[in-house]
Fold these 2 entries.
Entry 1:
Amino acid sequence: MCENPLRALPKMDVLLSHPILLSARERIPYTLVRQAARDKLEEVRRAALAGAGVPPLEALAGEIAAAAQTMSRPGLKRVINATGVVLHTNLGRAPLAPRAAEAVMAVAEGYSNLEYDLDNACRGSRHSHVEALLCSLTGAEAAMAVNNNAAAVFLMLSALAAGKGVAVSRGELVEIGGAFRVPEIMAASGAVLREVGTTNKTRLSDYERAVLSGEAQALLKVHTSNYQIVGFTEDTPLSQLSGLAAAHDLPLLCDLGSCVLTAESLPSLPAAPSAAAALADGADVVCFSGDKLLGGPQAGIVLGKKRYIDAMKRHPLARVVRIDKLSLAALEATLLLLRAPESAREALPLLSMLGARPEELRARAEGLAAGLRKALGEDYTVSVLPCTGQVGGGSMPNEELPGFCAAVTAGPGVPEGLETAFRRHAVPILCRIHHGALLLDVRTLSAEDEGEILRAAEAVRGRNR
Ligand SMILES: *Cc1c(COP(=O)(O)O)cnc(C)c1O
């Protein structure tokens, strides 16, 4: 006779009163322990029906306690970026300056004057906290900040171009990060796309034709931040478009995507687009991300002529895409740091990472390699290799950032096993595998990160014993 395989399955109440789970319940909410126990029992039941044995009660209780522990911790957590990609979109783009993080804390835990005018004891505007700063930094007449740059583009088109024809070069109909496509965002905003020119060449005369024929009542320039067209190309700069826009009193709009406020913020990357330059070249409204080359929180920043920015502030969508107080606090603190470009290069992690000199990176890679040799032990070979970092975040894809990494080139589980061990560390460490070696690019590491990497390496050595 064949025995019912589910017989061996423990009862829920027996399981939950196992000493391991009784002790877990002191640390972890009961609902989570019960949920983990249900999930585990279901998993074991299915396996038993498929012919597997039922694990002993003790082992089940241990696994349930571990699962409940994981469920009780936040899933979103700090990780260590050893990839050398500075603005890594999957890893949260720009790390905040400590000052910006403090500013977030200061408004997060209590009340703030978010929309309250302390001088006049009346309702204030959330834009006021960054508008004057943005204007003085870039020379803009007016400014506002919204949730992110995708929202800024959407609001700009909805408020200034809905129902109008908008001329865009065929070379600028970009897709950014999957879901953001210029033609689609335009359609959603009610603006009518008028493609001008060709993929590789768009001249002023192409825009002129669209304006003179009455097809276009606004001009949009999109910075092609994540790709480049090379070879026989021609692009019409803002400085040429501004004359056309002014002559016909049409708004010249510009989605800069990833840019610095002024060239002084980031002298190590002279090719980085600058918001101040776009305004000086005659753009009426420019928008860009707060967490790309600006080095701040997720935000969409809009600068430009007062009449256009006012129309955007008044549009009903402004409320839909408004920036939250935590991001606003981080943005204001970041802008305050950017007022002093020299010290900002030290104070903003993004700027120090992008501006790090190769010799400085080599010395740091040597320090990390020495630490890793000691922590991993004699079974591993660690060396220092030159490597290339990237700006990332769809910004400046052709810009190579020469640097150095600590490379684990040989040893047990190198590279995949060691990569997995690092990735599963309490603070996950993400690195690159290249030609069979595990590379840790020091450009994107803080001193604290390096300490954590050494702790992970010691744990690997302990497990190998
Ligand atoms: C990144 C980018 C966007 C989207 O910005 P988010 O901050 O991701 O919302 C829009 N346009 C361009 C040109 C970009 O580079």
Entry 2:
Amino acid sequence: MIYLDHAATTACAPEAVQAMLPYFTELFGNPSNIYGLSLKARKAVNQARSEVAKAINAKLAAEITFTASGSEADNLAIIGIAKSRSEIGRHLITSRVEHHAVLNCFHMLEREGFKVTYLPVSKEGRVDPDSVAQAITKETTLISVMMANNEIGTLQPIAAIAEIAKKHGIYMHTDAVQAAGAMHIDVQELGVDALSISAHKFYGPKGVGALYLRQGCHPTPIILGGGQEKGLRSGTENVPGIIGLARALALVNENGEAKRRCLTELREQLIEGVLARIPDVIVTGSRTERLPGMASFAVKGIEGESLVIQLDRRGICASAGAACNTGQSGGSHVLNALGLPVSLTRGSLRLSLGYENTAEEIEQTISALAEAIELLRSVIPRRHGAGRKKA
Ligand SMILES: *Cc1c(COP(=O)(O)O)cnc(C)c1O
């Protein structure tokens, strides 16, 4: 099997699993209690908090809140900050290419009376910082723009946007779920007030995320209960998951530069191989401002999902856009925001590479793709408009 869907999820690193194991069994204590067994769990969680803070260059461990997913981190940041500042203003800014964990929060807030500006993007999927500046009103309290897009890999100018936000006293959140592990993350360089990550995107376990909240940023909690995580996120801590997240993040950043350089080379091998060997294919997103491991294409004249099935038959795991968009009517909101014609967005293909992939696998993938696309094109009648759906 060749796994090329790291943007959907990754295999847990064996070292992370090893670090987690004792916290399922002998060290199973609830961190909230006061006896020894619990103290051990609490200490481990706080150690993990310090490690995560260090990995993203946060000033304080207390600026890290653990959540049950990247989605929850996004929800807490966006809904929580919007609500906590609703006395100051009720206008929010985001982009049209965000993940649904972000977009759906804004849609809900709109139903609650907030005004939201959804910024357009360039053909490459980039938000123009000037458009952010122009969208700001006296009522604006929060800007949320993702660090790296999960469908096309385009990187956003987060530091530039955060600087504008800061000048206006507006809070800035970034969904770094796709970026964490694939890029160096430094919250001081970025200048953001809030940043979301999720362990299963960087070789950690599923079901655990973290939200960085700069000191002084106090979102209104969205999960109420026993007051864990300084009241920001009630619920008994997922101790093994938190340990696994911290371990995976430290691991993925070891020799990070070198690993990312290799990944970028593999990505270019793939993109250049595809463009050279297969006619009528374009790269979606930016060629340069792009996640190291992300290759995304639009293939003319075929359906992305048929291609994914053909690749699966050849032992390759790929995706037609984001995993969570499967079955979405009207196609991908990200590809639509790029202004691509439907004849292209229909044939969307995302190949997201990981650190275990090899040049040999990339060559095999290019050949398999060429073969699969030729096959699909030969069975689909060549006419304009809708390609015939399989019976
Ligand atoms: C995967 C992903 C999420 C959601 O994270 P989960 O931990 O799966 O809830 C949010 N944003 C982006 C950009 C993602 O890629």
